[in-house]
Amino acid sequence: xxxxxxxxxxxxxxxxxxxxxxxxxxxxxxxxxxxxxxxxxxxxxxxxxxxxxxxxxxxxxxxxxxxxxxxxxxxxxxxxxxxxxxxxxxxxxxxxxxxxxxxxxxxxxxxxxxxxxxxxxxxxxxxxxxxxxxxxxxxxxxxxxxxxxxxxxxxxxxxxxxxxxxxxxxxxxxxxxxxxxxxxxxxxxxxxxxxxxxxxxxxxxxxxxxxxxxxxxxxxxxxxxxxxxxxxxxxxxxxxxxxxxxxxxxxxxxxxxxxxxxxxxxxxxxxx
Length: 272
Ligand SMILES: N[C@@H](CCC(=O)N[C@@H](CS)C(=O)NCC(=O)O)C(=O)O
Description:
This protein has 272 residues and is of the alpha+beta class. The protein has helices at 11-22, 42-47, 66-76, 87-122, 126-134, 139-151, 156-175, 190-204, 208-212, 216-226, 229-236, 241-267, and strands spanning 2-6, 28-31, 55-58, 61-64. It has 2 domains: 2-76, Glutaredoxin (3-Layer(aba) Sandwich), CATH 3.40.30; 87-267, Glutathione S-transferase Yfyf (Class Pi), Chain A, domain 2, CATH 1.20.1050. The chain contains 12 helices and 4 strands, in the order βαβαββαααααααααα. Helix 4 crosses helix 6 (139-151) and helix 4 (87-122) packs across helix 12. The mean pLDDT is 95. Residues 10-12, 34, 39, 52-54, 65-67, 101, 105 line the site of glutathione.
């Protein structure tokens, strides 16, 4: 039996949900309430020492890291393969997962934090907020959270995020230029799936058009992704009206600043 420890409206949990739905697998969901710091409970830390969701357990074995969980799910069931058949295509697919794991994941977290979670944290009782920061063992994660809490969208981590997204959107637009439907030409794969929750989050924050308003290939690809039943089941349907409204309102407030950061980076002609 598959058990998924997760939290609603979390990008990397949506990623695993997309894989479960695409693969037609059955699973049981267990909520780890991040708002109540349940990811720091001693029981949960035994499963996931990094104190993050998601965690998958399968017949007594534990798997962490959403990219690895998605690859694992694809391997345990032959139905609807999400991994292409040739070594080269598989390697190219993993290149996209690497972009998510090495930049976009932190990036979306920092943008979301500067827009939305920061406001939620400001409303938290002081002791709960302190406990949240004190619990973070990883110094880089601590600095990201603390700096972005203090200065919001002016945080250097938000600038790194905007840069990571700009680099990826350039690459997506170029890759799709030969008329292909999916990033790995042969088929819809974990490359498209892995990027989906990140674009969805930007869209819900009303920020996606900052990057794709003039990128026709990317816009069409994004529409294709959103018409897949898995998008509705794993991403849009589970969101509550309140979550959607909060994302839209908070992201809209920082939209001009995000666009400005993007323009400044482009004007600096940074290599990507
Ligand atoms: N690389 C990890 C990242 C996991 C991660 O950062 N999860 C976030 C939710 S999307 C989390 O649990 N955050 C809790 C916190 O930062 O306190 C993965 O892909 O599984």
